[in-house]
amidase (Polytolypa hystricis), 560 residues
Amino acid sequence: MPTAIDPSASWKERSDAKKASVLNGIPAEFLHPDLTHSETDRNPVLDIPSKFLSSKELSITALDAVEVISAIAQGTYTAVEVLDAFTHRAAIAHKLLNCCLEFRYQDARVEAEKQDRYFQETGKTVGPLHGLPISVKDQCRIIGTETTCGFVCNIGVPDTETCDLVRILVNAGAVIFVKTSLSIGCLWGETINNVIGRTSNPFNRSFSCGGSSGGEGALLGLHGSPLGVGTDLGGSIRSPSAYQGLWGLRPSSGRIPYYRMLNSMEGNEIVPSVVGPMSHSPHSLELFVKTVINSQPWLHDPHCQPIPWRETVFTEIVEGKPLRIGSMLWDECAFPQPPIRRAIREIEARLKAAGHEIVPWKIDQRTALELLTNAMSCDARDDVDRTMALSGEPDLQLAFSPGRKPLTLLEAWDLTMKRTDFRALVMKRWNATATDDGRGPIDAYITPVNPSVCPMHEDYKRIRYLGYTGSVNLLDFTACTIPVTFVDSQIDLADQQDGRFDAMGLPIPPPVSELDKTIRANYDPERFKGLPVAVQVVGRRLEEEKVLGIARVLHKLLEP
């Protein structure tokens, strides 16, 4: 339900009302008054839910999305039992991490009860997502609720329509039970806004959960949801996924419907934002993408491509097709910290041991980042500034490039052509990886998600670098985050200042900029100990089936 707001209320009064409304949406039996949010506590909170959940709730919330659906279909659990378990855990996550913007428990309970009745009467499920609780980023409009997109002015304003993606998920049997926090206007890699404040990382609450889909990342990181929906303009699915050890898919634009979702800078399609899934297994991502694509979203969303799910492409990779995988350990702009380099090398070693080929790969990320930044700041913050002014909320100075001048129409056209020329150049380079003896171009490439392990809250501004994620958005490639390992302070030693070799005996290039130097110096093995470490696998545009197939292969190779 929309937050009850006095039209004359200040931005702070609106924010306070929203915070109270979020808590009021949680069933009383799931509220634990002693639990509080902290931005400075360095202890992991991953085990705290076990102190409050029943054994049944712990068993349910340990399942991934595919396992949840199977358990309901087999009659092991009811949809209501599953909803209650995840709502309870999500409530704990919110109290600890400040990650949710709305609990839809009453509406979700009605839907779950309806599905249980149908299953009891027919012995059948209503669809491929029967009874699955799904969390969605607070850009997903749902009629009768409110969608803030991180702006205070949207508090108390009810949605008058439901976005296409939510409609598809609900028709397939999903139960949308919670909406999650995000950065203001989805334009920052740290999840903070004036609506409810900052969101923290469950592995260490003094560290960032990433952004802009950080509410999803934090909630999923504490297993408060089996499957979440995020969006990605410059890495906003992949960074939170990496920071919380999750699998997250950044599809190409036109595969998953975005129509009727709320966004900032709507109409700017030089580098389009995309929507995709986040979860604890590649199988859950596959389930989401297959279900959505099989609903033929192109019949309703004018941006969606009429491309059915290509099972043959996916299956031949999963069943053992030899792969040629490019590898870009660093982009000559920002050298990855030691744990990330170890993760890349581990993936390379496991692929080689399984008979796959590793091919060196490079992209001109300086040019890519310049084009991306120009695209994301083409209105010189006008849309964000005007929207914030509606409530009078303070400027957290998180949007891109304050002080720039907006592009003229001709300049925007020129930028679009430069983007297209850059895409063509990379396509040519990709094709050139084919060999004279008949081995085709690379199937995908692996690269860091970010050069740093997730930073502390106060460090994000100093070490922000979007090159590894942002180039993928500029190219509109498909990418999937692959959780690999955790920071080990005994292995991932800090590089010695002015050292020529790292702890593994491999060469260290000299810093190429002050930002590069700052990112390197920010790493501390003791401070970062236990944090998740991930990479991304990147495929060509509209190659979701291939990328998900490779993700499944990597998942198997990384199993203990």
The CA atoms of residues 65 and 226 lie 5 Å apart. The longest strand covers residues 478-486.
